[in-house]
Amino acid sequence: MKTIAKSRINEALAILAKESKLLVPMKVNGISKYAPWGSEGTIQFEEVNTLLPPKDTLFPHTEKMYSYKIANQEITELNIHDDSAPQILFGVRPCDMQSIKCMDDVFLTKSYVDDFYKNKREKLITICIGCTKTAPTCFCDSMGVDPSRHEAADVQMYDLGDSYGIEAQTEAGQTVVNKLQELMEDQAGDPTAVSCTLKVDASGIPAKLSTMFEHPIWKEISRKCIGCGTCTYLCPTCYCFDMETTNNGNEGYRFRCWDSCMFSEYSRMAGGHNPRPSKNERIRNRFLHKLEFFNERYGKNLCVGCGRCIAKCPVNVDITLFIDKLKEVAADEPV
Amino acid sequence: MSDTTVKMRDIAKDLLDKGTVHYIIGWEKGRFSNQSPPAFITSAAHADRLIWDEYCLASTAKYLLDDKFPAGKIGIFARGCDARAINRLIQDGQINRENIYIVGICCSGMKDPATGNTADKCQHCTHPNPIVYDILIGDPVPETDKPERFKAIEELEKLSPDEKHAYWSKQFEKCIRCYACRNVCPACNCRECFVDQYRVGWQGKQNNLAENQLFGLTRAYHIADRCIECGECARACPMDLPLMELNRKLIKDINQLFGPYEASLDTETTPPLAKYHLKDLEEFM
Question: Would the pTM of this model clear 0.90, i.e. be above it?
Answer without folding.
Answer: yes
